[in-house]
Amino acid sequence: MTQDKRIIVICFALALPVWAEDSSLETHTDLSLTVSSLPEAQAAVTQSFVFPFLQGEGPLVSGNNVTLKLGANVSPVSFNILADTVWMPIAFFTVSLGAKLGSGWNYPLFGAPMKGMGVRVYQDGQPTEEGVDGAGLDGVVWNTHAGATVQFDLAALFPGDWRHVVMQVYNEISFQNYTGARGHESWYYEGDDGVNQNAFSYYFSALLGYQMPLFIDLAGVMVELREPFYNPYTGGSLTNRGPETTLSLAVDFKLPKNVTLMLLGQWKNKLLHPLTSDYSRRWDFFRAALIATCRLR
After folding, report:
1. How far apart are CA 250 and CA 266, in angstroms?
2. Under a CB-based contact definition with an 8 Å cutoff, are residues 286 and 270 in contact?
3. pLDDT score, position 53
4. Cβ distance 86 to 95 under 8 Å?
5. Using CA atoms, how far apart are residues 162 and 213, in angstroms rounded to an integer?
6. HSE toward the beta carbon, residue 77, CA cutoff 13 A
7. pLDDT at position 3, please?
8. DSSP-assigned beta bridge partners for residue 158
9. Residue 110: predicted pLDDT
10. What is the rounded average pLDDT of the residues 271-289?
């Protein structure tokens, strides 16, 4: 569900004015629900505290702030708690630090395994059938991450309701760890491909969109890239598996009473299964998703 979180954060950030003028402390509570064409769902709550910080007189620094976000989410196979701190030293640039902690469980659903968390194994005598070791809840998955964002709104230079061509680029370095895995062991989390390792990873996303003063608030296209690159426990590089790339088409609808609906269509260069020695990938449709978010206060 990390992609959902990133898309929600980006679209909400771009829906805000490029430079804020209110110097008072702000607090926000957001509740979101995600459903998709996959057998998945997630409910999340996020509490945000926006502190004015080193604000100046000019338009580039008048909205300087530090935002602390505390959140939790739960799905049929996992739960997570998270914290992020985002500093905006200038209107078009932010830096962030954060951490996440969660756990998951496994169970069969209509004859198919729901892989919430566990070490990836091959079943005896069936080398093409992938399995997961244990019932889950045998440890925790945690990560720490640091990122930087550059964002731009054409209307900041040429004011006008119909000139909000927006762009945002985000880069992140993270370290993730599953306490039940050792060395080079691969593991599942939240129903993914099961090729995670306790390793450092690089994440990149770029969004180009158009914001409108209509019921359709924002429409855009987003590209995401995630690549693990180093396992400190084995001292080995992981770049041979190549980056996982996701292409998303997003439309954001603004409803009354502080409710927004986002529709997503996503395509991904999925790993071929069973895994080949060269980690071959193939582009395929990933999912359609609906994300409903309500600002409680």
Report:
1. 9
2. yes
3. 87
4. yes
5. 7
6. 21
7. 52
8. none
9. 72
10. 87
Token pair, residue 52, equals: 């004015």
Compute the distance between CA of residue 44 and CA of residue 42 in angstroms, rounded to an integer: 7
> Given pLDDT bands bounded at 50, 70 and 90, which one contains residue 128?
low
Whether pTM > 0.90 for this model: the answer is no
C-beta contacts of 266-272 below 8 A and 24+ residues apart:
266/3, 268/244, 269/244, 269/245, 270/193, 271/193, 271/195, 271/241, 271/244
Name the band, by pLDDT with cuts 50, 70 and 90, for residue 194.
confident
Residue 180 is which amino acid?
G
Q: What are the strands, taking DSSP E only, across 76-181?
A: 78-90, 93-104, 106-109, 112-115, 117-123, 126-133, 141-153, 164-178
- Which residues, 6+ apart, have CB-to-CB distance to 278 below 8 Å? 240
What's the alpha-carbon Rg for the chain, to the nearest Å?
A: 20
pLDDT score at 169? 98
3-state secondary structure of 278: coil
Q: Is the pLDDT of residue 173 over 60?
A: yes
The distance of Cα 130 from the centroid of its chain, to the nearest Å, equals 26
Three-class secondary structure of residue 36 per DSSP = strand
Helix (H, G, I), strand (E, B) or coil at 218: strand
Dist CA 226 CA 223 (whole Å): 10
Q: Is the peptide bond before 39 cis (omega within 30 degrees of 0)?
A: no
Distance (Å, whole) CA 143 – CA 137: 17
Determine the straight-line distance between the first and last CA of the chain, rounded to whole angstroms. 24
